[in-house]
Amino acid sequence: MAPSGCAVCGIDTNLVCKNCKSAGYCSSTCQAKDLALHQLLCGKLQPFLEANPRPENNYTTTHKLALLFDKNENSPEFIWIETKITMSDDGTYNLTCDLSEWLGYDGDADGGSGDGEAFIHARHDKKIQVWKASGAIAQNPGIFTLTEGGWDFGMVDDAYPDRLRGTIIGMGVESLKDDTRVTKYRDVTLDDLRVALSCFLEDSYMFDVHKSHEDGYNPYVILDQPEWFKAVKINNREEYFSKTNPFQEVMLNRNMRQWHSDKSAISELMGITLLVRKFPLYRDTFKDRINPEAISLLLNVNTSEDNEFWGRVPFPKYDSGKDPTFLVFRKDKQEITKQQVEALSSYCQVVLCQVLEEPEEWSWEKEDQEAVLDVYCSAEKFEEYFETFKLEKVAEGDETWVDASPPSGMRAAGIAEEDPEPGAKRRRVTSPPADDEDEVSEDENSEDETSEERHRRFLAYANWKVNLALGRG
Ligand SMILES: [Zn+2]
Ligand SMILES: [Zn+2]
């Protein structure tokens, strides 16, 4: 019954929990990560075995120690389950277990059917067979607590995945590699509690850190494993919890199934590609308000000549008054913080919306658009903005901004790389707007305006608009 392998990371170890001797740990670090979950059962094991010795077995039945997540209880318990070897008519042997006492229909509509549904879940070579009552609809309070904050592909509403309802039993099993048939039932160890939690979270592609538990973190889930990375959720401001600041950090599962997202072309030009997706998946939660913080990241910067949506969000897909909550994450699955997304979103709304807007009196050419993008969709301009934005936030007393820095991996302005000398000058154009406009009308009539002059004119215009927007005009 002694476990093999660390309950958290799976590497071989001979060290076990001193108290229950039923969970293996390679180090005090792994033990600490497992502590909150482990403590739910560590102190219960010996008293249970003393009060409930293994029932008498005969040659066809054996009782195995199992985990019970009762739909009426807040925390897991141990139970003995009778397992049986039966012979079919065709002479083959079957392993069965009798769960009717636990999963049976009890006259309560929430009880489900006693038939039960089983699935096998593996983690670090440990396998458990998880049983639930068919058709159970009651929320299981213990499992809800363990998984709180997780968002599951199987959710029927925003509260609880369907497959985790009703009473659930976890049996320790062995099976052949890549085979789901049980070859042997075994007693569970406390390592299996971590296997069970990983099963409950199997379809959780997102973990809402903010929502779970009082101190902000669900203590049972280990989110720093390599499979989780930091992303940002931008709530629609209509949602009650996001009136003040719609930006929230969440953890995404690196192994999540691929889903459709839109690419933020702006961020791509800056050298880090952000993916933006409507959220949640299967819920019709369209609010009759737009979510400008999120969709501003999707400004259209496609410079193809026939692009009539230049500088705007792709209407009617977005900005049609029905934009809910969004997830924003880095395509390279590096972490991104809420400060970084908030500053970029603000940059898009305050600066880019201004500079990408075509002046009525001029017509843009592809080269003009590209020249403006080269300057404004760059790390240089954004980082400058980030510093100002950060100072404002810190001045407002928001301490989360004190150590904030722009995302890693952004690239410097494209022009400067390809054409350092004139590019550097272009970005310094700061003519007063009035003079600028005069020059503009002269230049318009001039036949021999070079593309260099033209770019300077567009950038001066862009600069003027940005200064105006930033209140420096
Ligand atoms: Zn370990
Ligand atoms: Zn223990």
TrEMBL record:
Keyword Calcium: no
SUPFAM superfamilies hit by this protein: HIT/MYND zinc finger-like
GO molecular-function term, one example from the UniProt record: zinc ion binding
Composition bias type Acidic residues, residue spans: 434-451
InterPro entries named in the record: Znf_MYND
Keywords: Metal-binding, Zinc, Zinc-finger
Pfam families assigned to the protein according to its UniProt record, in alphabetical order: zf-MYND
Annotated spans, Disordered: 400-454
Zinc-finger found in the keyword field: yes
Domain MYND-type residues, every copy: 6-42
Annotated protein name in UniProt: MYND-type domain-containing protein
Organism listed in the record: Phialocephala subalpina
